[in-house]
């Protein structure tokens, strides 16, 4: 992991870059999942607009963090007080530099502080191996949502020390 990588809480000033990170990560990094089908991409990105992100930042049940590398935001992740990790997206050109792992560890730490015993998420096929390396296991049958295969995964969280 790059020493200049750090994670910080997302703010309203980050809305535009968060929207761009999410869209680029989906369009370029998840092409195996959406197969460059414009309708699937549109369905996947429709609720990731700046307006949606602003609403998520205002919601006290949600925690959104940004990964910053050399003073440039390169990733974003969000978790909920119900134990669900909603997403973890990284700029495609920054894959495999530790940002996704750092975001996930940060979100898991936040979930532990909420007193939650486990983290849940729905992975794509593209991200499944990444989440497995972080200790997530498939927890239910896959299902289809908006033309995508969703893989329910779960990780037991150790209590905060």
From TrEMBL:
Q: What would be one Pfam family of this protein?
A: Acetyltransf_10
Q: Which keywords annotate this record?
A: Acyltransferase, Transferase
Can the keyword Transcription be found in this entry's annotation?
no
Q: Give one GO molecular function term.
A: acyltransferase activity, transferring groups other than amino-acyl groups
Q: Please report the stretch or stretches of sequence annotated as the N-acetyltransferase domain.
A: 21-158
Q: Which InterPro entries match?
A: Acyl_CoA_acyltransferase, Bact_Acetyltransf, GNAT_dom
UniProt-recorded name of the protein: GNAT family N-acetyltransferase
């Amino acid at each position: 992991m790059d020493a200049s990588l750090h994670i910080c809480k997302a703010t309203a000033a980050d809305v535009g870059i968060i929207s761009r990170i999410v869209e680029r990560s989906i369009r370029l990094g998840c092409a195996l999942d959406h197969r460059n089908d414009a309708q699937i991409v549109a369905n996947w990105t429709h609720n990731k607009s700046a307006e949606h992100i602003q609403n998520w930042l205002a919601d006290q049940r949600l925690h959104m963090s940004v990964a910053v590398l050399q003073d440039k935001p390169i990733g974003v992740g969000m978790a909920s007080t119900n134990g669900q990790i909603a997403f973890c997206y990284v700029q495609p050109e920054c894959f495999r530099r530790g940002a996704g792992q750092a975001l996930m560890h940060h979100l898991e730490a936040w979930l532990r502080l909420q007193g939650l015993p486990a983290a849940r998420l729905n992975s794509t096929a593209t991200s499944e191996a990444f989440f497995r390396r972080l200790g997530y296991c498939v927890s239910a049958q896959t299902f289809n949502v908006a033309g995508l295969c969703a893989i329910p995964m779960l990780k037991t969280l150790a209590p905060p020390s």
